[in-house]
Amino acid sequence: MRYLKVGLATVVLSLGMAGIVSAAEVKPFADPDNIYKNYGWTWPTSGDGYRTIKGKYGEPRVGERNPYHVGIDISVYLELVYAVADGEVVMSGNFSDGTQVIVIEHDDKAMNGKPLYTRYLHLKKNSRLVSQYDTVYEGDTIATSGNTGGVPYHLHFDINDAKSQNPIFTDRKEETINPVYFWPRFLSSFALTASNDVEENEIVHEHGDYDNPDLYFDQILINYVGEKEFDNWFDSLDESERTVTKLKSDFNISDEEYEKIFEEAKEKARK
C-alpha cells in the first residue's frame, strides 16, 4: 500500500507543551543548507493522533539510560505505519522487553555521505509485515503502531546516520538527526498548539539495552523456531532470561545453523 505524502494542505501539527520545537532549532539546516527537506519523505503514520507529538527530539528524559530523547513520539493508537522512503529492512523483530521494532536502511544518504536509517518502535505485536533483507518503497505499509515494551500507545520514530550496517543503536545523540529537518514545513507554515488531552511527559519510559545483540530476536529466527513456540518460550521467562544465547540452547540451534538461517533468508530475499 502507498500512502500520500503529508503536504501543506493536509496537516497541522498539534504538539504538547513539552513537544514544541522552535523554528530557531532548525535554523542551522535552513535553506540552502538543509538537503533533507528536498527528500520529500512520507510521514511515518496516519489516522487519529498522527498530528500530535507527545515527546520531542532532544527533550530531557529523567531516569532513562539516555538523558535525552533521540526521536519523536507520535500519539497514534493502532494506526498503520509506513516506510518513509525507499530502502532495505535491516531489522524486524523484538527486544527482550517485548518492544517490537523495524529498522530500514534508506537509499537516501546523510549530509556526511553515510546511510540513513529510520527506526520504528513499540509496534503492535506480530503486526510487522516486512522482514530483514526485504526491499521497501516509500509509503509501503510495514506494521501497525502499538504499545509493546510496556508503554502507552504511540509510535517512536527516529533517524540515524550510524556507521553500522546492523544499527543496534547506542542512541548517542551525535548519531541521530532531528526529524524536523525532513519536514521543516510543519514548523515554518503551521501554528503550533498545545495538546489538552496529554499529561506532560506521559510517554517517558525506560528503553532497554537495545544495543546488545543478545537481547534482540529477529523475525527470521522467530519464524525458524515457529511463532507460537517462540511466544510460549518468550512468555515463560523473566526479561533478564530472554537472550538469543538461551534460545539457541533451548531449541538446539548451533552457531553454524544460526548463521545458515540468515544466509538462506538473505539469498531468498535477493533472488
TrEMBL record:
Transmembrane segments: none annotated. Residues 68-166 form the M23ase beta-sheet core domain. Residues 1-23 form the signal peptide. Keywords: Signal. The keyword Ribonucleoprotein does not apply. PANTHER family: PEPTIDASE M23 DOMAIN PROTEIN, PEPTIDASE-RELATED. This is M23ase beta-sheet core domain-containing protein. It comes from Brevibacillus reuszeri.
